[in-house]
Amino acid sequence: MFSRIDVNELTVENDRVMSALCVGFSIVGGAFEVLSAYLQQPLIKRIPYDFLWEVEDKTFDVNLLEDIYVKVCKLACNFNVNFADSCLLRSVSAVNRQKNMHKHELHPSSVAMSRVIISTPVEMVAHCICRTSIVKAKLLHLLIEMSPLHLSIFGKLFLSILNNNFRSNGILTEEFSSYALSDQDYMMLLPAALSLLNSAFVKFEKHFFQHFKTIPSFYSRMLLDGFMHWKSFVSEDIFQEEYSETFPSSSELFNLVDGSLLGKSIQMLRYHFFLLGDSVKLKKRLELFNSLFACSVTHGELIDCDAEMDFNSVNKSMNHINKVIAKISFCKLLLFPEDDKVLFMAKKTGEGLKETSLIPGSKKVDSVRMHFMNALVGAWQWMVKKLPLVPEHSTSILASNRDCQGLYRCSEVFILRNILQLTRKMHSYLIQLQSIPFVEQLMRSTLVHRFEDPNTLRIIRSILLLLSEGNFSRVLCLQMLLGHSQFGPMIHSISKPPVSEIGTFFRPMSSILRLLVIPHISSDMTDGKDDQEATEMCKKQLEILKLLRVLLQPGTNQSGFDSENDHGINLKELHLLLFSSYGATLSEIDLEINCLMNAIELIHSSGGSEYIKEMDYLWGTVATKVKKKHLLEHVASTDVMNDNEAVQEGRKNKYRENLPVDPKVCAATVLHFPYDRTAREHLSLNKSLTDNLMDMIEPCSLGAGKNLLYDPVFIMHFSIHSLSVGYIEPVEFTGLGLLAIAFVSMSSLDVGMRKLAYEVLSRFKISLEGCQKKKDVMRLRLLLMYIQNGIEEPWQRIPSVVALFAAEMSLILLDTLHEHYSTLNKLLMDSSRVNMKQIPLFHDFFHSNAVNYRAQRLWILRLVYAGLNLEDAWLYIRRSILETLMSFYVSPLSDVESKKIILQILKKSVQLHKTAHYLVERCSLFPWLSSILLTYCGVLLIDEKKCFSTELALVIEIVKVVISSNDITEWLQSCALEQLMLLTSHLFKLLVSGKKLINEYAAFVGPTLHIIISTLKLSHKRHMYQPHFTLSEEVLFQIYLAVSEDDIQRCGANAKFALEAILLSGPLDIFCMNQEQLSSFLMWATSNALNSKPRNAFQWQESGLHIPIVSREASHEESFTSKLLRWLTASIIHGKLSWNSNSSTSKVCARSNLRTLQSLMEYVAKEDKEGNKRSRDLEEMLAAQMIYLQQSLGINCSVLPSVVSALSLLLLSDDSKSTGSDFMHSFRTSTMTLCSKIRCPPELNPAWRWSFGQPWEDDSSELSELERIDELHACQSLLLTLGNALRGKPSDFQGLSLQDVDNSGVFNWETGILQTSLLN
After folding, report:
1. Which of 520, 830, 283 is nearest to 841 (CA)?
2. Are 90 and 32 within 8 A, CB to CB?
3. Which pLDDT value is given to residue 655?
C-alpha cells in the first residue's frame, strides 16, 4: 500500500487517503510489536508460529519491513501527522525491547531487525525536535540510544538551538531559524539531552566541559525555577508517566523511576551542580530547600497527602512514588553537594570543574539538614501506619498482594535507608546532641508497626550504632523494646537444639568416628531449600537480639546502665529470659545471646557468671524449671530448717534429671571442632558497621554450617562446674562425650581454650580418684596417664589427630563389646605415653591382616580425615601418610568405600597450604588424578555406571581447589602445566561424550568448564617457547554443543563459562566450519554475551535509585559482548588473509608494512589471483553478526577500526561478486578515501597476540586527538555504507545514507570541537 503512495502528490486534506494511512500505520506498529514478541520466545515456543512469518528457513524478508519503516518516516516528516509518529514509536520500542532482552537464544532475524532502526532517515531527528510532542520526544530518545550517528546529529542540532547559532553549517539547521522551542518542548527533549551528555563525556573526555556546559546550565535555570514551586510544577502533565498495569519487581521499580522525566531531571541537575557548582551559592540552595518545606514538620511535606495512596492503580502509584523519590533526591542534591563527586570518578576532566561544599558544622546548614531529617522521619512514620507489612521473601513485590501495597513498601524502605544515610553524613553533628527526638520516634514506630520486619530492625540498629559514640541516651529505647508485648514471646520462640534423652546416663556412645558423615558432593553441587518460615523467624529473632545488644552496649561517653537507677529495666530477669532461650551452640543466635548475657553480667555484677552459676549452668528451658524450683526451696527454707546435705542431694537429683546435654551434639563438636573459637571471644559491636545494608540478611542456622555444634567455651565451663560440685560421675561424664570435648580442645590454637581443657581434665582426674576402683574407672585413669605422660610443656598444644584419637578411645573403653576395644586396651597396657609425632595405630590398622581388617582400615581412615588441619600438616607429610593413601588407592586391594574416604582426605588436604604444595610438587597429584580420570572415562563412557559419579565429583573438586591457589598456579605455569593440560583433556572427553553423565549431574559441567578456563589462562601467561594448551575448532564446537542441550541450558552460568573457554582459546579458522553450525554457534554466543554484559555501562546505585555515572572509567571493564566481537573480528581477519595468501616470511613482512585499510584492501586484491571461491552467504552472515554486535556496543566499541576492517574484507574484497556490488560501485571512490583514513588492523602486526582480558595495543601507532576523531568518523561512515550494502539497497534508497551524514555537517562539527579546544 505504501509503495503506491506518491509523497509529492499527497496532501493532508485528502481524508480518504489519510484514513487509509492511519489504518496502515496501525498495522505496521502492531506488526513490529508482534514480531518482537515472537522473537523473544524460546526456540521451542516459536515453532508453532513459524508459518505466520514464513521463517521455516530461520529468516524472513527484513528488507520489506525496513522499506515500510523508512516510508512511514518519510510520511511523518512531510505531513507531521500524529498517528505516523505513534506508529514509529511503537516500532522502535518493539525493536528496542527485543534488542535488550536476551533470555533465550537469539533468532537470526533479530540480528537483521536491529539494522532497521539504523536506517532511519536523518530528517527524523529534525522532525522530532521541531514542534515536538511527548511521542516525538520518546521516539527521539530511543533512536539516539540505539544509533550513535543519530545521537551526534541530534547533538549538533540541539546545541545550535541552545546557542542560537544558525549559520549555514548544515542543511538541517536552516528550518530552526524561524522556530523557537518552548520551555515545555525543551523539557520533553531533556532525556535526549541527557543521553547526549553521557555520550559526549566519553567521546570528548577533557574537552567535554567547554562545549557542553550550555546544556546543564540551560536546564538548571528552568528546573530550579520550576522546583521552587514543586507541587504545581511536578503535577504538570508532562511529568505524568504512562506505566503498564503489570506489577514490577522491586529492582524494576527503581529502574522505572530512574527512567522517568522527573528522574532524568534530577540527573541533569547533578551535571550542573558538579560542573558549575559554585554558581549555586549556599543562600540559593537553602532558599530552594525552604521552598519545598514549610517551617513546621509534617509528613505532608514530603508525601503529597492530597494524592492518597491508590492501591488499585499501578500507574497512579508509580507516579506518586516517582515524585516522592525525586523530591528526596533533589533535597540531598541541595544539602549534600559533596556527594556529586562520586558520580564523576577521579579523572582529570579539564578546567572548569568546581568543588562545592556547604561548610559542614555551620549551624544554619545543620538546622536545615535536621529539618530534612525530620521530614523523612515523619513521612516514614506516616507510611508504616498506612501500609501493612509485605513479606520480603516474595519473588515479586506483589506475589501475595493484589494491590500496590508492595510498591509503597519499596518506597518506605527507600526513605528509611535515606534516613540512615543522613545519619552517617550528619554523624559529627548528631553525636554532640543530648537528645535526638527522631530516633525515639523511629524506635516507637518500628516497635508498633514493623516489629516483625528484620530489614527495618537492621536499619534502626545501624542508626543507633552510629549514634552510640555520642551523648545520646538509649535508655528510653531500651525500655520501649523490653516493654514490647511480643519481646518475651519472640525470645522464647527461639528454636533450641533437640536433646534426645534428657537426664539419661545409661546409654553412652560407643564411638565418635562412627557418627562421622563425610560429604561426598560439596554444597554447591546439591540443591537444598531451607524452610522459609523458619528462616524468616530466625532473621527476626537475630535482629531483635542485635538491636538489644546495641542498646545495652555503653557508648563512648556513657558509663552504661545502672539497674538500680534505670527504673523499669530488670537486668536479672532479662538474663534469665535469654538463658532460658540459650542453646549453648555455635549458631549465630546463641553466640549473640552469650554475648548479651556477658554484657548484662558486666553491667550488674562487674564480671563473673553469677547468674549462670545460680542455674547450675543448666541452659534452655531447663533453666526456667530450675529457677522455679530454687524459688520454692528458698520459700521452704524460711519456714523449716533443712538439712544441708539433703538439700544438696535433692539439688543433685534435679540436676541429673534435667541435664540438657546431647551426646550426639558433643560428638559432632569433637568431629568438627571450631578451631577459630577463642576463650575470650566476644562479638564486636562495631562489626555491624561492616554490614552491607543494601543486601538482604543471610539466612541464619542453628549450628555452624550444616552441623549443630556446642560452644566448647561454655561446655567446658559447664563441665568444670559439674565436676566441681560432684553432680556427674566421671564415667557418666565420659559417656556423654564431655571428656572427648576436653581432649579435642587441647588441640586448639588458643591458649585460653587449652587452659580450660586442662582445667576440665584436672577436675576429671580428681573425680576419678574419689571413685571406686572399677574396671572402667581404671581404664580411664590409664588413658589420662597415657596422654599426660606425652605432654612435655605447660598448656602444650597436642596434634588434633592425637586429641581426636584420645577422644574416641575415651568412649570405646567404656564399651567392652566394641570391635576395637581389645586393641586399644592392649595399647594402654603396653604403652606408657602417647607419641605426639605420629598417628597412633596408623600402620597397624591401615595394613592390618586381622579378621576385621576392613573395619580397622575404615576406622583409621576416618580418624585421619577428621584429624587433618593446617597446624598438623607436618605430621602427615613427615610420616608419608598421603603417599601411603595414594598408593593404596590404585592398588587392587582398595575397596570403594576406602577410595571415597581417601579422595575426601585429599580434598581436605589441598585446602591446606602446606599439604597442597606437597601433593602437587612432591607427590605428582595431577598425573595421579589423570590416571584415575582415564579409568573413569572408560567406565562412564562405555558402561555409564553410576557408582563412580561420587569419585568423579571429588576429583573435579580437588582440581578446582588446587588451581584456585595463586602460589600453586604460578608453579604450574612455569614448571608443570603439562600435568594440568593432560588432566584437563580427560575432563574434556567426559564433558563432550558423557551425555548421560551430564544429564544426571548438571553440576559437573560448571566446575569442569572452570578447570578448562583456568588451564587456558595459565597457558596464555607462559613464554612463547613453552608448550601451550590449545583447543581445535572441532573441540570448541563440541563444548558449545555440550552446554547448549535443553536440559543443561537451565544453568546460565554454564553457558557463560563455555563461551569464556571458547574465547580464551583465541581466534579460529571459522571459514572452515559448516555455515549452519557456525550460524547456530554465533547466535548462541551472542545471546550469552549480551546476557553477561552489565545492565548499563553508566550506572551506579544509590539507596536503591539508579543514577548514571558519566565517567569514562566506568566503561574500562570490557563486556563479554566486546570480547566476542574482538574474537570474531580477529578470526575473520586471520581467516581471510590465510585464504588469500600463504604464510611465507615474505608475505608476513609485506602485510606487516601495511599502514592503512586502503593499502590492506589493495594487497588483498593483488594476492587473490584465484578469485573468490568462498560462500557469499557465509560472509554475509558473518558481516550481519558483526554489525549487530557493534550496534549493541555503540560508542563503547573499543576496536571499531578492526571491526570495520574485517567487514571490508568480507564485503569489499571482490567487487565483482560482493554484496550490493551495484550499490558499492557508485561509492567506490568515497569508500577508498574512507579506508585511507583508517589504520591497518593491529591483528596484522606480527607481534599481535590474542588477549581475553583486554584488546592488544600497539604503542607505536598512537594517534593524535584529531587523527583519532577523523578515524572514528571514517569508521562510522564506512560502517554505514557497508550496512547499506549488506542490505542490498539500491542507490535511490531513502534511508540514512553517507551523503545525508555528510550534508548534516556533524563530523565537521565534532572535529571543530577538538580543534577549538586544542587551540585554547
Report:
1. 830
2. yes
3. 85
